[in-house]
Amino acid sequence: MAMPTERVHTQPIKMVLVVAAWIAVIVYGTLSVTAQDPLWFLKRFEAHPVRVLIYHHQGKLTDLRPGQAGFEELSTAVQASLEQGVDRPSGIGFSDASLLDAYSRYVTVEVFFDPPAVLDSPYATGEPTQMLFPVTGRHSDQPLVLLGNDGKYQSNAPLLHTVEPIRRALQDLGYYTPK
Length: 179
Fold this sequence. Notes:
The protein has helices at residues 12-35, 71-83, 96-104, 164-173, and strands at residues 49-56, 60-64, 86-89, 108-113, 130-134, 146-149, 152-153, 158-160. It is of the alpha+beta class. A hairpin with a 3-residue loop joins strand 1 and strand 2 (60-64). Helix 2 (71-83) runs antiparallel to helix 4 (164-173). The chain is elongated, with a radius of gyration of 23 Å.
């Protein structure tokens, strides 16, 4: 006597949902490992600068610390720019000659953090202790921020969504005049 066979019913919608969920987990996991940050998708920046250097007017240097006039405005502007988030890696790095020009010929803001800052991004940015924002000169037409540690800046600097808060603060404080 033949045994009755059970009929298997496939559930294509359930199958598609399971496959989609697995793909989402794999993509999220890959991006989290690559970025070294499980919250890479958030637009937040919580670090507070401990020192701000402004290179301006053909080689003049202004060193601002907490409590000094202009420090809070620039610190807030830096945080506002970084809170807008990272757009993408730029592929740009500064040579020693480009850094020298940024310090001596152009308007540039250099910010220091202690403890190191964490920049949420879909790719690894490390934990920089310093950041350099070119306001005029090379690559200033892009919202670029160079990330560094111990006086050395990394290549492949991130492009932010904007650095306009920094430009406005510098303009309000008299360090920068747009052309």
